[in-house]
Every structure is written in structure tokens, then in C-alpha cells.
Amino acid sequence: MSSLERKREKHSPFTLNPDPRRKTSAEIVTEARHSLRTLRTQRPFTPRDNHRQLFGETSRTQDSRPPSTFSLYARNFEAPDSRPGSGTRLSPLEHKPRLPVAQDEDPDPVSPMALPKPPSDPLELKRGAVGARARLFRAGSLTALPPVARPTEVRESVNSVSSPEQRELSAKGRGRRALYVEPTDRERRDKDSGGPSKPAPPRTNSVSGLRFHGGVDSSIRPGKGTGAGAGAGTELGTELGNGDRPASQEAEDESVVWNVKIFPLLQELESIVAGGSEDAVERLCDACDCLHGALAEQGMLGRRCRKRAWLLRALFCLIDLNSAQLNLQLAKLTLELNVSGKNLLNICKLIFKISRSESNDILFQNNSIIDSLLCVLRCEDVCVSGEAVLYCVGTLKFLSGNSALLRLLLAKDCVGVATLLIQKLHPLSQPDHTQFTIGGHIHVQLTATLRNLADLPESRPLFVSHGTLAELCLVLRHHHGDQDICTNIARVFSKLSSYSECCLVLAQTPGCYTLFIELLSKHQWKQDLVVRLLFTLGNLTSRSSEARKHLFTAEGCMSVLLGLYHTYHGRDTCNPCTPFLGWWENKDVLVKLVRVLANMSIHPAVGPTLAANTDLIHYLLNTLELRSMQESEELLVNVAATINNLSFYQEDSSVVRDRGLTVAKLLLKLLLSSSIDGMLEATRVFGNLTQSREVCDFIIQNNVHQFMVTLLDSKSPEVCFSACGVLTNLALNPPSRTTLTQEGAHTK
């Protein structure tokens, strides 16, 4: 090294680059492009819904939505079938017998014989009887529970071993005719010998308050039955048969199990109700647990138990005790017995009613009822049991508001079950489908549950692995007009898109960008939906260059985004009386919107087009002019960052380049503010604008260069780096060089 070079190195304020190779133009451009930055912002706040209702203040009318409050009693439940369903449709009998008319008084001998009217529906008789008793029943009383009545047909079957005289008296006592039954051989012999057996009272096991008419099972006698009774027993035995075991043996085994294990537990329930002790509810719950265990151990859950109907009636009557703890036990056992139709609906409504009170959340933690609810969602046909599914999902929505139960739901794969249910609901999503409305109601509850589950970090892999995000996009497309569904899904996306794995999956979902733009256009006045969709788009465009291009090329993208800018920028700036909450929400929408524009402008094919958009630059400069740093710091910082990205592109068509002096004047208030972020963004913009001689002269004339020299004392490398960029551009002009030397810039 020559002495002259050593002298220059000694007095030079800069350290020479040890690499003698000069940077290429591509490297210089790449280094400059690093100044283009994506923007971060806070996720929109999601308020907690403290009112546990199916629907809050929504767009749904009161007439079209199911109620959130109702009363349920034992009389609301239907009497189930007394025999298991075989799944086989029987053909009608061709022979229609003519039966004699039964009357309370002697029939008229002159009147001709006529076909009898069908007997009264035993279910209707049951409803009427229970309704009359319910008026005398005090809710919560353990000693006044109405008796459990069995269907007339079953009573006749059980009493078929009695004499014809007994059957006649019993039928007249009930106010209906007695069906003629062929007497047995023993009855004929007794009658011929003149010694008929004495009438015996029906076998009835009862305790004061609760009466169970099932009794010890003596009606099934393998090998002894005759006629229709034997045929029915054989049919049921075959249905419940196991391999090569005779059906009669199966029936006999179940009869033994019933008498030895099940019926004593029902008697225990009766005695507890009759006793009326203070710990009756706890004892009833324990007895129900034992009953559930015994039925499960013997394989008698579902529809396999022959006395299932009597068992369900006994359980339904206990509902009137009005105990949340007991009712959850009863609901769990009832669902295990595979109820359907109205009974399934009422059980789901009963569980829903219990879950409406936060004080009952602890009961769901100590009960496996959640497993039963998830099983209902997996197995039930939404076209048949849509309303029951609705209340079932509504219960899960309420429970997901509890942090402990939320984690329990996640552990039981509620995300996977919800995704499966969404797939089952897709066929109902056609507007002309008869179940479209109930499908929409279910989606409201389901998406609200997923919204709560998305709060847990452990849920993110499940949303990805189950393909839930793509399914939710399909729901948005089917229900794009439903603001409740759209808002719930937007909340899910705004939460999950903040994390890279979920953001990548959503960014790769076909058609999601066009879908989001359509929703923004359709619901532009619904602020809570708009702000979350914009936040999601900002997350997608901050992580993926392809997302920036896909969003920009989506049909109507720029017209919709600029339309939103015009709407929300003018709503509060033109009206000084705008309430604070509305003003804050408008500002939050603009913050998220400007962030999307800034992120999109990084793409080399998108940035020049945005820089040449006159309307966009007009809105950005108008925001700088009308807003103050005290009220809108985040918004102004985002606007300055967007202008910085756009000012990178120095094409002749750039509006930022043409209006550089105007931009420089408006940025002075950010530069001189107390906001470090605002000062830094303004300095970065000046680094691009000082390529213009006009802007350089403005900076020298307004002593901005002095501020830049002062920034060299900053401890922030970013601030020093940006200030050096501005001073370097100013030093290209010989007159400015003298001014900078006088300020001591070279020394610093």
C-alpha cells in the first residue's frame, strides 16, 4: 500500500470494504429491495359472549330460529316401542277379522254387527294420563312422582296367563273392549271340571310415588308358549340370537339377567324416591351409574333389551325431579339406550338447558356426557334429526366457553367430529333444500365452537390434519349471505392465519382469495367481518409472494379494496360527531386494509401497478393530511410504510414519483413527532424521495438535513442506516455537500 493510500485511510471517516470486487447491479437492486417490508398489526379483539343463547343479536328473525328457553317434563317424552326394531318391513295381513263390539252396556240385539272401531292409541292414552297427573305433581318432590304406566298391549301380554274372566274385568275397568284370546288347555280343563282358578291380581311391583310395572320377568317361558305369544317371543329371540345358540335360550338368559341384576336396581330407584331423604339426588345418581354399568356389562344397551320401553319410562319420570346433576345422568343413560325421534330431541334440549348455566359446567367435567354428544354428531342423520343435532352443537358451543371444558373437547377430537359434521351438512347447503334453514342454524353453532377451539395452540395441527380450513371455505361459499356464519369463520381464520402452518394451508386453498373479495364486497358495512377478513388477507400476503399475486389478480380486488378505503376513511373524517367506538372501528379497518396494500406492493409485478394507481395514492396522502399522530399513530405509520414500498418503484408511471414533493411535505409531521416508528418510516421514505433534486432542495431549505445528522447519534442501527441513506443522496449535490460538512456530518 502506497503512502498516499495509507494517508487517505487514516483520515477517512469510513472503513474500506476489504472485498475489492464491486457489487453488480443485481446485487445493488436486491439489497435495496430489502428495504421493502411487510407490516404487522394486532389481531382484532374478539369479545366474549357472556349470554349463553343459541343466537344473540343476529340477523336471524325470531320466527325462523329455534328457541333458547323452554320447559321440559316427563310428559314431553313419547312412550317408546316395547320391542327392538328388526329393521324389516312386514307386509300387511290380507285377513281382516270381524271382532264383536265391546260396550259398557248390553249391546242392542236389533242392531246389526258392525266392524269395530280401532282401539284408542295407547300412546295417546298415556299422554293424557301423564298430563293429568303432572298437574298434581310438584316439581322437585321426591315422594309425588307420577306412576310409570306401560302400554295396554304390553299389559295384556303380561296378563295373558290369567283367566278370560280376569281379562274381561280388567278390560272393562280400563273402559275398552277385551280382545278375544284362545283359552289355554289348562283353562279348558278347569272350566269343564267346574273349578276355575281364582283370579290373581296382576303382578305389579310398586313403591309409593314411583311405580314400575315391568315386574320380574315371567312372561318368557322357553318351549311353553303357544300361539301368537310364542311366535313373538321366537322372533325377538332370533333377532337377539348369538350364533348357533337357540333363540329360546337367549330369551331365558335375558330374563334371568333382568330379574337378578336389572330389576333390583329399578326397585332401588323406587325406594330412594319414596324415601325422600336429603341425599336422594346423590343416591339416585349412584343408582343410575350402577344401572348403566349393569346394562353395559350384560350387553343390554342400545335397543337390545326387551324391556327397554319400561326402562325408559322409569327414567323419563325421574326428569321431573328437576335436578341438573340427575338429569345429566339420565340423559347419558338414555342416549346409551339409543333413543330417536322426539325423545332424542327432548334429551338434547334437556342437556342444552342444563349447559346454559355456567354453574353446571362442573357437572360436565365429572360426567362422560360429552362423549355421548359427540357420538350423536357422528352417527345421527342431520336430515332426520336436524333439530336434535342443533341443540347438541349448541351445548358444545356453551361448554367451549369454559377453558377447562375447552381443553376436554379438544382432547376428545371435537375438531375432527365438527369437520365430519360439516361434510354431512354440505348436501343441505343448496338454497332450495328443505333442510337449508336448519343446516344454517347448525353451522352458526358449529363455527362458533370451532372459533373457541382455535384459541388453543394444540388445536392448530388438528385444523390442518382434518382439512377443516378447506371445509370452512366451502361453507363460506354455500352460506355467503349469512352474516353470522361468515363472521364466525372469519374469526377462525383470523386466529389461525397468524401461525405459519395454518397460514400456508389456507393460502393454498383454491379460490380463497376470490371468495374473500366477494365477501368483502357483499358485507362491506359489517365492520367486525370486514376487519377480520382484511386481517387474514394481511397474514397471507405477509408470508407468501404467491399470495400477493393471487390476491391482486382476483377478480375485482382493487376496486373492492379502494371502495372499502373510500367508505371507512370518509365515515368518521367527514362526520366529527362519530361516536368513539365507531370511530375506533373505522380506524381499525383502515389499519388492516393499508397493511394488505403494503404487503401486496412488495411483489415486483404488483408494486409498479399500485404505484401508478392515482386513486390509491390520493387516499394515502389524504390520510396523511387529515389524521393526527395522537389519534391514529398505527394508521399513519402503516401509510408511511406503504408509501415507502411504492416509492421504491421509480418508473415514469409512478404517481409517488410525480408527487414526491407533496409526499415530503406531509411526512414532516411524522418526522418531527414523538413516535419512533413514525420517525423511522418517514426517514425511509425520504431515502427514496431524495433521488429527486426537487426533494433534496426542499430538505435543505427546511433544515431537514440537520435532523438527519442528529439521527446519526441514535443507538438504533435501523435509524442510523436510514439517516445515512438520506445524507448519501444529499451529498451527491455539490452545494449540499458544503452544507453537510458545516453540520459536521462527516465527523459523525
UniProtKB/TrEMBL annotation:
ARM repeat boundaries on the chain: 703-745
Bias kind Basic and acidic residues: ranges: 19-34, 183-193
InterPro entries, per database record: ARM-like (IPR011989), ARM-type_fold (IPR016024), Armadillo (IPR000225), ARMC2 (IPR038905)
Region of interest called Disordered, as start-end residue ranges on this chain: 1-127, 139-252
Record's compositionally biased regions (Polar residues): 56-71
SMART domains found in the cross-reference section: ARM (SM00185)
Compositional bias per record (Gly residues), positions renumbered to this chain: 224-234
GO biological process, one term: sperm axoneme assembly
Annotated protein name in UniProt: Armadillo repeat-containing domain-containing protein
Organism (species): Oncorhynchus mykiss (Rainbow trout)
